[in-house]
């Protein structure tokens, strides 16, 4: 197994209510699941291949709950990456070179039946975890914006976090609300639904403290 590790930031959005039932082993809000996830790798390596500064977007769609399978997915990687870096990210996001069940990528690989060819296009990411604000943009393909939950009476920003001591994606995530749309091999959209902002630190063995 090739040893790898990455540190970075993530903005994840989906079509469920804020909080996302998946985080609590519950069924999707509307019966199905679709998600857009932007990842900025601040530092990392895959064997001897450096991953610093890479950006990618994962898009997934399931007709029911994620654990029921039959998912479709695609991955967008910034073209500034080298051929070796692209191959490394594709392996990590496909759940390869990873202990079984150790990362969200490895788990998702077991419930995705169709993967579109990777797309190499400029990825613009803005992820501010503390302020709970962010954007994901890929020209003519993906557009996501997210911000904090607002109190319905006062309009004040509301803060809520998810703590996952044994999670396979993160340890702590700030929760917000977002909207997103995607075209191409997968096409869908949502508005006013779940978003979370988190720091990623994982390896072939799983999430690291």
Short description, anyone?
The protein is built from two helices and 15 strands. 8% of the residues lie in helices and 49% in strands.
Overall mean confidence score, pLDDT:
97
Structural class by helix and strand composition: mainly beta
Separation of termini?
22 Å
Total number of domains: 1
Helix content: under 10%
Reported for the largest beta sheet, the result is: 15 strands, mixed
Whole-angstrom Rg? 16 Å
Silhouette: globular
How many strand elements? 15
The topology string of helices and strands comes to EEEEEHHEEEEEEEEEE
Low-confidence stretches: none
Our estimate of the beta-strand percent is over 45%
Secondary structure tally, helices: 2
Give your account of this protein's structure.
- The chain is mainly beta and 209 residues long.
- The protein has one domain (4-203).
- The chain is 8% helix and 49% strand.
- It is built from two helices and 15 strands.
- The chain has a 15-stranded mixed beta sheet that branches.
- Strand 8 and strand 9 (133-138) form a beta hairpin.
- The longest helix is centred in the middle third of the chain and has 11 residues, at 83-93.
- It starts with a strand and ends with a strand.
């Amino acid at each position: 197994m090739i040893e790898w590790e990455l540190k970075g930031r993530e903005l994840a959005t989906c079509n469920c209510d804020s909080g996302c039932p998946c985080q609590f082993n519950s069924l999707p809000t509307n019966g199905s699941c679709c998600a857009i996830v932007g990842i900025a790798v601040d530092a990392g390596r895959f064997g001897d291949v450096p991953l610093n500064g890479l950006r990618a977007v994962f898009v997934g769609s399931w007709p029911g709950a994620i654990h029921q399978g039959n998912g479709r997915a695609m991955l967008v990687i910034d073209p500034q990456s080298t051929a070796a870096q692209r191959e490394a990210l594709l392996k990590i996001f496909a759940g390869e070179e990873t202990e079984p069940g150790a990362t969200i990528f490895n788990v998702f690989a077991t419930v995705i039946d169709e993967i579109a060819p990777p797309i190499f296009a400029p990825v613009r990411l803005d992820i501010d975890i503390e302020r709970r604000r962010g954007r994901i943009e890929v020209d003519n393909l993906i557009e996501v914006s997210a911000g904090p939950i607002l109190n319905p009476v006062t309009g004040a920003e509301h803060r809520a976090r998810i703590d996952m001591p044994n999670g396979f994606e993160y340890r702590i995530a700030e929760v917000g609300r977002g909207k997103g749309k995607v075209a191409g091999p997968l096409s869908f959209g949502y508005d006013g639904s779940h978003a979370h902002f988190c720091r990623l630190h994982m390896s072939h063995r799983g999430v690291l403290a």
